[in-house]
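Subject: Protein record for review, amino acid sequence with backbone structure tokens
How to read it: Take the token row as a discrete description of the fold.
Enclosed: The protein record, placed directly beneath this head.
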Amino acid sequence: RGKFLHKEAQEILYGENKFVIRSHHKQAGDLDILNHLSLDALSAMRCLMVRLNSWPCIRGHSDANLDEDCNECKICSFPVPLSDPEISTANSDFKSIIQTWTTICQRLSTGVSPGRLHLEFIADVRDLPTAKRLAEPLGSLPRLQGCIVRFGRKPNHTLSSLARSIASRLTHKTEEAATSGRTGRSAFIYILKHTNIGPWGSFLPELDAIHVMNKTFDQRYTLAGKGSIIPVRRCCHYCSFTKLHCSCPLNYAAYSPQCQCRVLPLELFLVSRQMRLDASEVFYGANVFRFRGPLYTANA
């Protein structure tokens, strides 16, 4: 009877709670706790966040709105210089990090139930080769229910693309556009309308307007969204399973399938002349624009 109750309690404990494991470069054994969990506990687990290096605070406090010249955590005043550096293959402790991370992934692969776990992985790296090395052990995991990956403290297209491919592969999801029987250019326009250059909202479109000031897009409005004056570096609070760390691609080299930040893919206008025409048709025809500033400029 006691053994049965233990199993039931274990399923509730690990199945109904969210678990966060943060590693600190001066405490290499932080991740070992996952090696000590039973296979039954890992099998019951539904939500896990693993962070290999903590910044700007080893306690895991958010770095949202942290100024580049700020020297301490805004929550606990922990000195930022004492937090973890970016991970690099050139660092002396990288061998230890990759060995520990590989062991953890092997342990998870034997215990995690396929299609059950939501995994959030954060490792702020210095370059692409380091990110690829840290991504290799993830390949041993079974299919995940959800996956969020972050590889950098600043937006980086290459690292974000790698994060996206890893998350898609681990969840066995492929991105396919339903064109509803459309063909040719009609289908292409339909697809463009479902990117971020298409309409963003339907209930109150004016709140999702694209703001223009001094002949340029005002990123304080447009990219942060919702039409209010707020800093560009802002979390939508939907990008994380645990809601403890931001993984918005707008702020970091990351991929989160549930992030609700709007990042305008203006690179589409540079692909070709036809792409520019098609993207312009969708962008200017499906959005609401607000022009801010003086209506005219006085002659000097």
The chain is about 30% helix and 10% strand. Strands lie at 18-22, 47-51, 118-122, 146-152, 210-213, 216-217, 253-255, 289-292. The radius of gyration is 22 Å.
